[in-house]
Design brief:
Chain lengths: 493, 120
């Protein structure tokens, strides 16, 4: 039983989805989704503790030995991402009940749970698989499910947002397949570890360079790397609350994982970082994302879209570590997968409650007026999560920036340190705008106190508490990330 | 010009790839965009399949009299990719139908125009 945990991690949500569709019952769907999400978290933690004790291990799917069969491989990096994804899932699943009930017609709610399970299965599958083509299949499973989740938004703009995301996402995935195809033509293998071994010491071979370009652009589209982020603001703004929270906290992070995996274990890092301008490219794009997207967020009126732009900026922090390419920088990057996941997850979960109670089609900045009176707990949670976004000491966001700044100083890249501080200052501006409206401007009419439904509020506040927990006790996020960063820098496939 | 017959498969792949991407970007009609997407994805099927075929090669079944085998793996991979492509296209068409119901048009510029008018 125990040795099959790596496969169960993916199989559980994958089997839950068709069962939910067959049962056609909202109550069963909600119960199954919650149970599966918790089970996934338990499995992920078990896998992570096994990796921490005994090191990386692999699982031969169907007993077909790698490199011929599909290998599932769990090491420090994938275990960390598995925990981050399933942790978010375990908060979103209990939240979903009230949120979905308020946003969808009763006879279609179970389908949304099924899509959520499929999306979870895809994301966990991407992380656990050790096979380049299997990774593509899981990438498409999670992407197709997330297009549907976004299209289920209440406003008609959601359809167009889902369509745009579908076009961009499919082009991205197809670019990835082209890259993998070229690598397969050169090496004759699809196993990631095997690919890594065969590509070591390969001098600048044109098909390998082309594969690198295709995979970078393809995965860059999926993770919303700066100039390729056009799909993200609309998709996050118009998706149902629960979908926004889940996708913002997990989908782009898992794509970053794929990029890390390819850059540090499949391609030869020596060639990548010494002979190609990888470092400069990633530093420039990340800094552009951090500054430009934050500035756009300052002028945004729709609150969900404001935080979507802030996500683009935060993804800049994550990719910054790839450009720094040292222990501290990568630790910051990988820790931020989790730190930003809980921060943005908490924000979107709380915003879902605000949207539900305001009844408006979209939550605008002005619509938050008097929030401190109407929903004091929600407003307080939003402030704490906002502080984590800014990177105030004692919150998760600070931990990331601490390591990134350390990494930048080690590289001697002072302009990057300045950029991190500038981006944080801009974040202060857009978070303060919300705080000012919520606490200092009175709402219309008598302020009746009405918090979000208990399930939604509890999930949102629990995730907010995690922002503070990961800021004060860093053994999980920084400890796990430092192991993963060391693994990547050793360059062993 | 000898490069063209030798790399015929790659030239066709490249043509389909660029043509598909061009339709996807240049056309404003949501249906035509999906057709471009389908053409673009087809080019990848060819990229995998074409190098897997050996002239004179046969199916990889060990039997007397046959020594040259074609690689079956690309076919299996592309079978999976075709299924993914079909699913994507089906979802794209379903969303296009919903867009048509919600907006009454499937021209991108008209949809954006109606959204702007609605926002005012």
């Amino acid at each position: 039983m125990l040795e099959h945990l790596a496969a169960l991690q993916v199989v559980l949500p994958l089997v839950a989805a068709p069962l939910i569709v067959l049962a056609r019952s909202t109550r069963f769907a909600a119960a199954a989704t919650t149970a599966v999400s918790y089970a996934c978290l338990v499995i992920a933690v078990a896998l992570a503790s096994r990796v921490a004790a005994d090191g990386a291990f692999s699982y031969a799917l169907g007993s077909w030995q790698p490199p011929w069969g599909i290998e599932y491989r769990v090491d420090a990096l994938s275990a960390f991402v598995l925990v981050a994804v399933s942790l978010t899932a375990s908060f979103v699943a209990p939240y979903a009940r009230a949120s979905i009930a308020a946003e969808l017609a009763a006879d279609r709610q179970y389908l949304m749970y099924a899509m959520y399970c499929l999306c979870l299965a895809g994301l966990l599958g991407i992380t656990v698989t050790g096979d380049a083509f299997n990774l593509f299949v899981f990438l498409e499973i999670s992407s197709l499910a997330s297009y549907v989740l976004i299209a289920l938004g209440r406003r008609r703009q959601a359809l167009m947002a889902a369509y745009q995301y579908m076009l961009m996402g499919t082009v991205g995935a197809t670019f990835y397949v082209i890259g993998v195809g070229l690598l397969y033509l050169v090496t004759g293998t699809l196993n990631l570890a095997d690919l890594g071994e065969r590509l070591r010491g390969v001098e600048d071979l044109r098909p390998v360079l082309a594969a690198l370009a295709f995979i970078t652009v393809g995965i860059g589209l999926k993770l919303a790397l700066f100039p390729l982020h056009q799909w993200l603001p609309n998709a996050y703004a118009y998706a149902p609350s629960m979908a926004t929270a889940f996708l913002a906290a997990t989908a782009t992070k898992v794509s970053v994982y794929v990029l890390l995996r390819f850059y540090f274990t499949v391609f030869d890092p020596a060639a990548l970082f010494e002979r190609l301008p990888t470092r400069e490219t990633f530093l420039a794009l990340s800094v552009a994302a951090m500054i430009v997207a934050s500035l756009v967020a300052v002028y945004e009126q729709d609150v969900k879209r404001l935080f979507a732009w802030s996500s683009v900026a935060q993804i800049g922090y994550i990719t910054l570590g790839i450009g720094l390419e040292n222990q501290a920088g990568l630790t910051g990057s990988i820790a931020h997968l989790l730190n930003h996941g809980v921060t943005k997850g908490a924000i979107f979960l709380l915003l879902g409650g605000i949207a539900l109670r305001s009844g408006a089609r979209a939550v605008t900045v002005g619509g938050l007026a008097g929030l401190g009176r109407r929903m004091p707990l929600t407003a307080f949670g939003l402030v704490i999560a906002g502080l984590s976004l800014v990177g105030v000491p004692g919150t998760a966001g600070f931990v990331t920036k601490w390591f990134l700044i350390q990494g930048a100083i080690e590289r001697g890249a002072w302009w990057v340190v300045v950029a991190i501080l500038a981006s944080s200052l801009i974040a202060v501006v857009y978070v303060w705008r919300l705080v000012e409206v919520a606490y200092l401007r009175a709402g219309q009419g008598a302020p009746a106190r009405l918090e979000a439904p208990a399930g939604m509020l509890a999930a949102g506040l629990a995730m907010t508490a995690l922002c503070v927990y990961f800021g004060l006790f860093t053994s999980i996020n920084v400890g796990g990330a430092a192991d993963a960063a060391a693994l990547l820098l050793r360059g062993a496939p | 010009m000898s490069a063209i017959p030798a790399y015929f498969g790659y030239w066709v792949t490249l043509f389909l790839m660029i043509a598909g991407l061009y339709i996807l970007i240049a056309r404003g009609n949501l249906m035509k965009k999906l057709i471009g997407l389908a053409v673009f994805q087809s080019s990848v099927y060819l990229l995998y399949i074409a190098p897997g075929k050996l002239v004179g090669g046969t199916a990889p079944i060990v039997a007397a009299g046959f020594t040259t085998y074609s690689n079956p793996l690309p076919h299996v991979l592309i079978l999976t990719a075709i299924v993914v492509g079909v699913a994507t296209l089906a979802l794209g068409l379903a969303i296009t139908v919903r867009i048509r119901e919600a907006y009454g048009t499937i021209e991108e510029d008209e949809i954006l125009e109606r959204d702007r008018a609605g926002a005012r």
